[in-house]
Design a protein that fits this description.
The protein has about 300 residues and is mostly beta strands. It has a single domain (about 1-295), classed as Tachylectin-2, Chain A, CATH 2.115.10. About 0% of the residues lie in helices and about 50% in strands. It contains one helix and 21 strands. It has one helix at about 145-150, and strands at about 1-5, 10-15, 20-30, 40-45, 50-60, 65-80, 80-90, 95-105, 110, 125-130, 140-145, 155-160, 165-175, 200-205, 210-220, 220-230, 240, 250-260, 265-270, 280-285, 290-295. The protein has a five-stranded antiparallel sheet with strand order 1-5-4-3-2, with no helix packed on it. It has a four-stranded antiparallel sheet with strand order 6-7-8-9, with no helix packed on it. A four-stranded antiparallel sheet has the order 10-11-12-13. The protein is globular, with a radius of gyration of 18 Å. Keywords: Glycosidase, Hydrolase. Pfam families: Glyco_hydro_43. InterPro entries: GH43_arabinanases, Glyco_hydro_43, Glyco_hydro_beta-prop_sf. Belongs to the glycosyl hydrolase 43 family.
Length: about 300
């Protein structure tokens, strides 16, 4: 049994299995997250503090299309199976992209489902997440990276019903600089322009029906978590942005979920420094679409 303080993990994603009364905690679990990838693990628990594991859920074979940057796995139930959306650095062209894996169990093993990454081949992309629209049509929301375009963007693309391929071209939902809270930075080697980061999009339907999008960026070089809102309730937007980030204490790549007692929880990793990153869980309150830290009663 391990506790959160002992788990080195980035990009936490929790699957709540109500029938078992268990939480499944996935994330970027390689010790050297920036180098050679070994796969993904899962932790299983019933209280968001004490966990069994880690258990391996994905290990690549020698023919897998990536050897580096195994990042940000999310697991979604869809059409009777479990699908993992995860980011990999491609062997063939050295660019990152999100691919889709599949398993019959939350414990895996997850096996390649899509034919490599489904993000555009020539793009640096990452952090794909599944979204079903009001007609239950599948979409993938992902980030087009700042390393390629400077002003990082959040994009959406339709998926085929079997989640193997995309339909049509991605649409840009917004760029990071359109929100009032992220700040720019200049990179010493990659480029010297004003860069803005987009990381870790996650879609959440608020109780009042609003469609929210969590995503991460930086404020004065400190990792932070913010929220944007669709003005139409549709994934294509247009999007408006909360003026202030919801978390500014060097943490991000978060997601919202309801725990087994129906409490709203924000999980993200903090601090944003390897090997010190840990999953943290913050009780939240929702008030007419506004999400904030739960106040002590």
């Amino acid at each position: 049994m391990v506790q959160n303080k002992d788990i080195q993990l980035r990009d936490p994603f929790v699957y709540v299995n109500e029938s078992e009364g268990k939480y499944y905690l996935y994330g970027s679990t390689d010790k050297n997250i920036w180098g050679k990838g070994t796969g993904f693990d899962v932790y299983v628990g019933d209280d968001l503090e004490n966990w069994e594991g880690p258990y391996p859920v994905f290990r690549p074979d020698q023919h897998f299309y990536s050897e580096e940057n195994f990042w940000a796995p999310e697991v979604h139930a869809y059409d009777g199976s479990y699908y993992m959306f995860a980011t990999f650095l491609r062997k063939d062209n050295g660019k990152r992209g999100t691919a889709i894996l599949k398993a019959d169990s939350l414990m895996g093993p997850f096996l390649p489902h899509s034919d490599g990454p489904v993000t555009p081949e020539g793009w640096y992309s990452l952090d794909g997440t599944l979204h079903l629209d009001e007609e239950d049509k599948p979409w993938m929301i992902f980030c087009h990276e700042w390393v390629q375009i400077g002003d990082g963007s959040v994009c959406a693309v339709r998926l085929t019903e079997d989640l193997k391929e995309t339909i049509g071209k991605p649409v840009t939902l917004f760029n990071a600089s359109e929100a009032p809270w992220p700040t720019s930075f200049k990179h010493k080697t990659r480029n010297t322009q004003d860069n803005y980061v987009t990381d870790g999009p996650f879609v959440y339907r608020a109780e009042n029906g609003e469609l929210l999008l969590l995503w991460a960026s930086f404020v004065d070089n400190v990792y932070a978590q913010g929220i944007s809102r669709s003005m139409t309730g549709d994934i294509k937007g247009p999007w408006i942005h909360d003026a202030e980030p919801m978390f500014t204490s060097d943490g991000g790549h978060g997601m919202l979920f309801h725990d087994l007692k129906d409490n709203l929880i924000l999980t993200l990793h903090s601090p944003n420094k390897t090997p010190e990153e840990r999953p943290i869980f913050i009780p939240m309150e929702e008030n007419d679409g506004k999400i904030g830290g739960k106040k002590d009663e």
